[in-house]
Amino acid sequence: MSPSKAPNLDSIIDELWPGIELEGKDGSGPRISNWGADKLMGTQVKYVCVYGYSTSVSYNRIMQITDPKVQG
Description:
By secondary structure, the chain is mainly alpha-helical. The protein contains two helices and no strands. The chain has helices at 9-16, 42-66. It starts with 8 loop residues before the first helix and ends in a 6-residue tail after the last helix.
């Protein structure tokens, strides 16, 4: 992680789980699609779910690292 900027979810996941990659990180997929549409496509819904879940899991893992008494 670069000390000059705030970490994003990708950099946090890279630190905590090397080798795991969020779908669409290569610039394709739901990250760059039209989020202003009336209905989200299935890939967008999946992306949002995975992003939200991975944020929660990452937060819990960071809490476990900083305080080993925290249950995850």
